[in-house]
Amino acid sequence: MTIKSWPQSERPREKLLQKGVYSLSDAELLALFFQTGVAGKTAVDLAHELLHHFGGLPELLNASKQQFCELEGMGEARYALLQASCELSRRKIYCEVREMDAMCSPDQVRQYLSLHLSGLPHEVFAGLFLDNRHRVIEYQQISTGTIDSAAVYPREVVKRCLASNAAAVIFAHNHPSGVAEPSDTDVRLTRKLTDALALIDVRVLDHLIIGQGVQTSLAERGLM
After folding, report:
1. Are 8 and 66 found together in one domain?
2. What's the average pLDDT block by block, 10 residues per block, for the chain (224 residues)?
């Protein structure tokens, strides 16, 4: 049974046009990119299998080309299409964040950092460098670690702030476990970086822990 034989109200494209993009499930959205399935499977079937195989949408979108292309019905063209869609989302949010005070748009900042860091199989520590009006200068990955740690050196962070001419910074890193609770190490590192950057008049505004669909702010927790 192909998608064309489904009632129009259940077909992903028609459903999107009639009810809006938010009415579609993750599998239906993926099916719109795939357009076609394989013998005995619709594009929606393939999407369901992919989501199950990788354990969710973030994990799927962060899969390597090799991991993605080795599965039935997948290939470089579909991998490239999904990666392009992710990058368009990042760039859209980045453009929005750059036009406003980052501290006045915390939801957009969290969404942007989550798009970069959520679902990664290893820990990544990053910084969002800001000017004196808290507008975004640039995003940079500072350190990439193992599944449970990332080496972050204050001297390297200071160098990057100076190179960016930053007046403030928002740090973020992911927890591959999906749990967004800050550890004692996270708190100690934040305070260490805050002290180091104070010497060059750069303010640390926040440190976000990115989990699976959730983010925790150390500033909001009073842990800065």
Report:
1. yes
2. 60 87 90 83 88 88 89 89 87 78 81 85 93 92 80 93 97 91 92 96 96 91 90
DSSP-derived 3-state class of residue 196: helix
Identify whether 222 is part of a domain. no
- Nearest CA-CA partner of 170 in 120, 121, 123, 215: 215
Dist. CA 217–CA 199, nearest whole Å: 23
What is the identity of the amino acid at 130?
L
Please report which helix (H) or strand (E) contains residue 126, including its range: strand 124-130
For 136, which DSSP code? E
Task: For residue 154, give Cα distances in angstroms to 99, 110, 125, 195, 200.
Answer: 29, 23, 12, 9, 12
Cα separation of 45 and 95, whole Å? 35
User: pLDDT tens, 5-27?
Assistant: 565 567 888 888 888 888 989 99
Per-residue tokens: 23: 């009415």
For residues 133 and 130, give the distance between their C-alpha atoms in angstroms, rounded to a whole number. 8
**Same-domain status, 82 and 111:** no
Amino acid residing at 46: L
> Who's near 42: CB < 8 A, 6+ residues apart?
1, 2, 3, 31
- Measured distance CA(43)–CA(52) in Å, rounded: 14
